[in-house]
From TrEMBL:
Similarity annotation: Belongs to the class-III pyridoxal-phosphate-dependent aminotransferase family.
Enzyme Commission number, as recorded: 2.6.1.11
Cofactor(s) this protein requires: pyridoxal 5'-phosphate
Pfam family name, one: Aminotran_3
InterPro entries noted in UniProt: Aminotrans_3, Class-III_PLP-dep_AT, PyrdxlP-dep_Trfase, PyrdxlP-dep_Trfase_major, PyrdxlP-dep_Trfase_small
Organism name: Sulfurimonas autotrophica (strain ATCC BAA-671 / DSM 16294 / JCM 11897 / OK10)
Name of the protein described by the UniProt record: Acetylornithine aminotransferase apoenzyme
GO terms assigned for molecular function: identical protein binding; N2-acetyl-L-ornithine:2-oxoglutarate 5-aminotransferase activity; pyridoxal phosphate binding
Length: 393
């Protein structure tokens, strides 16, 4: 049996997989089982922020697994403490971290902090969490309920109570009441369709929430780890949230989820935990990834890469004005609105056949999340493959 047959027989069919199996990679370049080369404009959905098979990350992880991988959170774990320090310092916020294993788990932690904070603050029990329409916060029972997409609430109920959806950022204020424990937003909706929030409006909401002493939770699972140019999008939006969640790109491919918060005394020993969270392996990955990205930020490389990518994308966008209606996004989280969903699906399939991987977001957005280390050559090669795909549309 080949891999496809084994997968079909033994793996639950929760993914509609494309007909390709990658076997190796280097930076933004991937090779499939037939030796065909691809340029990766997806970085595994925003995960391999420092590229595939990054030498520094590989070396750090090899050394780590050769000494210790896991001991449990019953004991001190040096890489965990150091990863927390690096993440907090890169953010510039006065926060502490909790380590889990995924974006959804980070958001679960964020909701637990907001709810416990709401419970001990005053006589009225605050439990409601306001999220936005078209948001995406994860796949656990709680985070799927936090996700503002009706279609994702079809099965799996009954769900936990207390999730309220605002149509848009303007509607948040009218939904606040004495039971509101927190407001959770993405500054740029990712899965929802690469939809940046208006900076002034976000700042107004952040200010309002501070006045009402309601924690603002920013889900930075996709926007964090320098995806849009600053370590967190919250820094770029010049706000000071009480809670930020990170995952995807911060581990560079090793599963990790982080909740960071200014609310340092809400969770006490025993309130929350994770067996794997923050172990030697994933924490060491975070340390190395954050070091690499900090250096790229400080040297100016990150900005140059982002400019190069966006110039190439702009040129591509302008060449196909009959297919694309708008260029959207910030930094290296970008997209092109496509006139219709069928065309979008065709583009993604043709792109793959021509040797470049791209993503879908929302109903009609072609999404680009390249590794932050992508080279000029890889950018050119990727867009050249995309041009070939467009000529076959
Ligand atoms: C991907 C994503 C999640 C879920 O992360 P998992 O690691 O798949 O649990 C949550 N929020 C946002 C904004 C995401 O992009």
């Amino acid at each position: 049996m080949n891999i496809k047959e084994i997968d079909n027989q033994y793996v639950l069919p929760t993914y509609a997989r494309a007909d390709v199996e990658f076997v190796s990679g280097k930076n933004a370049t991937l090779f499939d089982s037939e030796g065909k080369k691809y340029i990766d404009f997806t970085s595994g959905i925003g995960v391999v922020s420092v590229g595939h098979a990054n030498e520094r990350v590989a070396k750090a992880l090899c050394e780590q697994v050769a000494s210790l991988t896991h001991t449990s959170n019953l004991y001190y774990i040096a890489p965990q403490a150091l990863a927390a320090q690096k993440v907090v310092e890169a953010s510039g916020y006065d926060m502490q971290c909790f380590f889990g294993n995924s974006g959804a788990e980070a958001n679960e932690g964020a909701i637990k902090i907001a709810r416990k904070h709401g419970e001990r603050d005053g006589e009225i029990k605050r439990y409601k969490i306001i999220t936005l329409n078209h948001s995406f916060h994860g796949r656990t029972i709680t985070t799927v309920k936090a996700t503002g997409q009706e279609s994702m609430h079809n099965y799996f109920g009954p769900f936990p109570d207390g999730f309220v959806y605002a149509e848009d950022i303007d509607e948040i204020e009218s939904l606040l009441d004495d039971h509101t424990a927190g407001v959770m937003i993405e500054l740029i909706q990712g899965e929802g369709g690469v939809e940046p929030q208006n900076k002034e409006k976000v700042q107004q909401v952040a200010k309002l929430l501070k006045e009402r002493e309601i924690p603002l939770i920013v889900d930075e699972v996709q926007t964090g780890a320098y995806r849009i140019g600053e370590f967190t999008a919250s820094q770029a939006y010049e706000i000071e949230p009480e809670i930020i969640t990170l995952a995807k790109g911060v581990g560079g491919g090793v599963p990790v989820g982080i909740v960071m918060t200014t609310l340092k005394h809400v969770l006490q020993a025993g309130d929350h935990g994770s067996t794997f969270g923050g172990n030697y392996l994933s924490s060491h990955a975070v340390c190395e990834v954050v070091d690499i990205l900090n250096e790229k930020k400080q040297s100016g490389d990150l900005e140059i890469t982002s400019l190069m990518f966006n110039q190439a994308l702009e040129k591509f966008y302008e060449a196909y004005q009959d297919t694309f209606t708008q260029k959207v996004g910030i930094g290296m989280m970008c997209g092109l609105r496509v006139k219709d969903g069928d065309t979008l699906t065709n583009i993604i399939n043709l792109a793959r056949q021509n040797g470049v991987m791209v993503l879908k977001a929302g109903r009609n957005t072609l999404r680009f999340l390249p590794p932050l280390t992508i080279t000029k050559e890889e950018i050119d090669e990727g867009f050249s493959a995309l041009n070939s795909a467009m000529s076959q549309l």
